[in-house]
Amino acid sequence: MAPNAFIREPQEQMQMSLQTYGFKKPLILGGSTKDRTSSCKTFKMIDMALKQFRKCVDKSISEFNEENDEETTEFKNFNEIELVKTALASNFLSKYETEIENFDTADKLVTFLKSVVGTVSEVQKQQNARKELMEASRRIDEEESFSMFHTRLENLTKLCDSNAAVQTFLLKDAFGKNLNSDIKQFLREHNKTGITPKEMAEYLDKMQKHKKSARVNEIQIEENNAFQNELMNRLEMQSKAMAEQSQMMAALTAKIAELSTQNNEFTTQTSDLRAEIFKLKTTSKTNRPRKSNNSDSSNWRNTENSAENSAEKTLPAQPKPWFKRQNWGNSIHCRKCGLKNHTDENCVFNPQLQCFRCNGNGHIATVCRKSLN
CA 110, CA 183: separation in Å to the nearest integer? Predict the structure, then answer.
C-alpha cells in the first residue's frame, strides 16, 4: 500500500515535527513568582506541542504499519524527549542533566520538570497579574490601537480579581493612566470623558489617535515648492549678510590687533621714560653737596650769642625790665623810653614823657635807671 503524499516515513516525519513544534522561548529556571507563572504557561505549550507531534507521527507510523516496531517506538520517545528539552534553558539543562538523561518518556520528564519548577498559588497569580497591570503600557512605537490595548488590560484584570466591580475599577484606572495630556484634552473637548474605557478606546481609534503622526491640512505640492523657494531665497540673503558681517568682523579684529600693538608700544615707551626720570632724580640727589648741619648751626648760634653779649656789655647796668622780647612777633620795647616799635639805638628823646618813679622827663617808670633812696 503506497503511502499518502502528505505522509512521510516516521523518522523523517519526527524530524520535521521536531523542527515545527520546537520552542524558541525556553523554560527558565528561577524562583520568582513571575518565573513560575511563565513556566506554567510554558508547560501548557509543551502539552499542546506533544499532542500535535504525536498526532502527526502516529498517523505516519499507522500508514507504514510500524505500531509494534520497537525501534520506531524508541525513536519516537527519543524525539518527544528532545522536543521537551527544546523548552529548557541552558542553566536548567546543565543543572539537571543527569536526571533528564534517565527518563525514557516525555511524560515522565514533564512530571519531573513540574516538580522542580513548582506550582503557583492563586494569590501569587493575582499579585503577579496586578504587577503586570501596573506596568502595562500601550505599544506606541508599534501604533497599537486603543481597542487592542483595552483587551490586554481586560485580560489582566480578570487574573487580578474575580469580582466584576473590582475588575471594572482596575481596568478604568489602568486605561486612564496610559492617556497623555493631549489625549485627555481631546476627550474633554469632544465631551467623551464620561463614557466607558471600551467606548473611549473605540472613539480614539476612530479618530486615528493611535497613530504617531496624524496629517491634518496638508499643504499642496505647488504651495510647498513656492514656500521652499522663498525659504531658499531668504537663506541665501541671510548667507550674504552673514558673509558681509564676517568681513566686517575680520576688519574690526585686525584694527583691534593694530591698536593693541600700538598700545603695547606706548606702554613700553612710557615705562622707559619713567625709568629714565627715576634715574635722573637718583643721579641729581647723589651729586648734590651735603650740608654740615652741626657745624653751621653751632657757628651761627655762637655768632648770635657773641653779638648779644657784646651789646649787653656796651649798655650801662640797669634793672631788668618786667617784659621780655617776644620771639614770635615784630613788636620791640625800647629800654630808654619804654615805648614800642623801635630799638634803643633809634630812640629819640621825648621830653613830654614823665617818669612817675623819679619824676624825670624823657622816659617812663618801667625803664627808669635811677634808684630810689
Answer: 48
Q: Which residues pair with 361 in a beta bridge?
A: 354
Instruction: Judge whether 353 and 345 are in contact, CB under 8 Å.
Output: no
Residues 63/52, Cβ–Cβ less than 8 Å: no
183-208 pLDDT, tens digit per residue, is 999 999 999 988 999 999 999 999 88
Q: Which amino acid is at 121?
A: S
Rounded Cα distance between 282 and 272, Å, is 15
- Model confidence at 309, pLDDT cuts 50, 70, 90, reads low
CB 197 within 8 A of CB 171: yes
Distance from first CA to last CA of the chain, Å, rounded?
196
Report the amino acid identity of residue 197: P
Q: For residue 359, what pLDDT is reported?
A: 84
This prediction's pTM: 0.39
- In this structure, the chain runs to a length of 373
* 111 residue type, one letter: T
Q: Which long-range contacts link 17-23 to residues 24+ away (Cβ below 8 Å)?
A: 17/52, 17/53, 17/56, 17/57, 17/79, 17/83, 18/53, 18/79, 18/82, 18/83, 18/86, 21/49, 21/52, 21/53, 21/83, 22/49, 22/83, 22/86, 23/49, 23/86, 23/87
Q: CA-to-CA distance for 353 and 355, rounded, in angstroms?
A: 7
Exposed, middle or buried by CB within 10 Å (0-12, 13-18, 19+), for 346? exposed
Element (H, E) at 166: helix 164-177
Cα of 243 vs its chain's centroid, Å: 35
Whole-Å CA distances, 55 to 50, 52, 167: 8, 5, 40
Residue 128 and residue 33 in contact, taking contact as beta carbons nearer than 8 Å:
yes
Please count the other Cβ atoms lying within 10 Å of the Cβ belonging to residue 336: 22
> Could you tell me how many helices (H) and strands (E) the chain has, helices first?
13, 0
**Gap between the Cα atoms of 180 and 209, Å rounded:** 11
In 10 A of CB 80, how many CB atoms?
Answer: 23
Please say whether the beta carbons of 17 and 2 come within 8 A: no
Q: How far apart are CA 144 and CA 341, in angstroms?
A: 126
pLDDT tens string 34-52: 666 667 777 888 888 888 8
Q: Is 30 left (phi over 0), alpha (psi -120 to 50) or beta?
A: beta
Q: Measured between alpha carbons, how far is 103 from 151 in angstroms, rounded to an integer?
A: 42
